[in-house]
Amino acid sequence: MTILPLNERAVLAPNPVAKKLFQLIHEKQTNLCVAGDVTRCEELLKLAEEVGSEICLFKTHVDILEDFSFAVVNELKKIAQHHQFFIFEDRKFADIGNTVLQQYEKGIYHIVDWADIVNAHILPGPGIIEGLKKVGLPRQRGLLLLAEMSAFGSLATGSYTEKAIEWANLHQDFVMGFICQRKLSHFPGFIHITPGIQFADKSDFLGQQYNTPESAIAKGSDVLIVGRGIYAAKNPREAAFLYKKAGWQAYTQTI
Ligand code: S5P
Predict the structure, then answer these.
(1) How far apart are CA 54 and CA 5, in angstroms?
(2) pLDDT tens, 112-169?
(3) Nearest residue CA, atom 22 of ligand 1?
(4) Atom 17 of ligand 1 has which residue's CA nearest to it?
(5) Residue owning the nearest CA to atom 4 of ligand 1
(6) How big is the chain by its Cα radius of gyration, in Å?
(7) Which candidate, 74, 83, 90, 89, places its Cα nearest to that of 56?
(8) Cα 35 to middle of ligand 1, angstroms
(9) Is 92 a catalytic residue?
(10) Residue 173 C-alpha to ligand 1 middle, in angstroms?
(11) How would you classify the pairing of strands 175-179 and 142-146?
(12) Contact 108, 69 (CB under 8 A)
């Protein structure tokens, strides 16, 4: 199989964030996403600043921040602008269209105001995509569908995964790709983003299962999400550099 270069995939991507993300990965030469799963705003901003030069995406779980205030997202946006990366709020929406639309736009977090990318489970049916799209598309945002999960015993397999691909195809303007464990679609405009990455592939004893950067890329992933492998490392900046290097080298061997 021939894999198109990222700048050509940027041209083919219908979603505006996917387009910019492919181009950024190509120019910055990094397919690394750091999961900033820390619980204090100061730690989150410090981590973003430390790893910013090595990443294309910074993934947040804004609802685990114990001292959340809107200032943190404003600061994060400044860091993202300075270091050139996109912000992905890992909200994993999972309700009916009318509810997720409000969760995306309203509440404490006003996610659509600052997150370039969010993700959603497809369990409630295609209405979840339509609800999020109403709010996100006019703001030029992108949606990733959770087509597979990294955790042991995940039910997102088989026909469930197939449905995610089918509904993504119907909403290519807003759905930019998948959270998955391998390449799912041969449409080059979709991006495949894979969590559960560590150099030492093992488990965390709470169901998480890890692949190495090399094995995830060999299975067709485009972007690798690393959480504890980086933020829990003695030196997160150095760890991010090493994961970036491994991910990028593995990618360049595929083209
Ligand atoms: O299937 C999934 C989907 C996601 S988004 N498995 C995951 O682990 N994630 C997220 O990726 C998870 O919520 C966490 O933020 C990150 C993995 O963290 P790590 O510390 O295990 O690398």
Answers:
(1) 20
(2) 999 999 999 999 999 999 999 999 999 999 999 999 999 999 999 999 999 999 999 9
(3) 227
(4) 227
(5) 195
(6) 17
(7) 83
(8) 7
(9) yes
(10) 25
(11) parallel
(12) no
SS (H, E, C) the chain: CCCCCHHHHHHHCCCHHHHHHHHHHHHHCCCEEEECCCCCHHHHHHHHHHHHHHCCEEEECHHHCCCCCHHHHHHHHHHHHHHCCEEEEEEEECCCHHHHHHHHHCCCCCHHHHCCEEEECCCCCCHHHHHHHHHHHHHCCEEEEECCCCCCCCCCCHHHHHHHHHHHHHCCCCEEEEECCCCCCCCCCCEEEECCECCCCCECCCCCECECHHHHHHCCCCEEEECHHHHCCCCHHHHHHHHHHHHHHHHHCCC
User: Which amino acids bring their CB within 6 angstroms of ligand 1?
Assistant: 35, 37, 61, 90, 149-150, 179, 195-196, 208, 225-229
Atom of ligand 1 nearest to the CA of 229: 22
Read off the pTM. 0.98
Ligand 1 center to residue 117 CA distance, Å? 15
**Tokens matching residue 219:** 């299975």
Q: Token pair of 131, please?
A: 């609800």
Round to whole Å and give the CA distance between 217 and 208: 18
List pLDDT tens digits, range 88-103: 999 999 999 999 999 9
Type of residue found at 240: A
Active-site option among 20, 46, 92, 245: 92
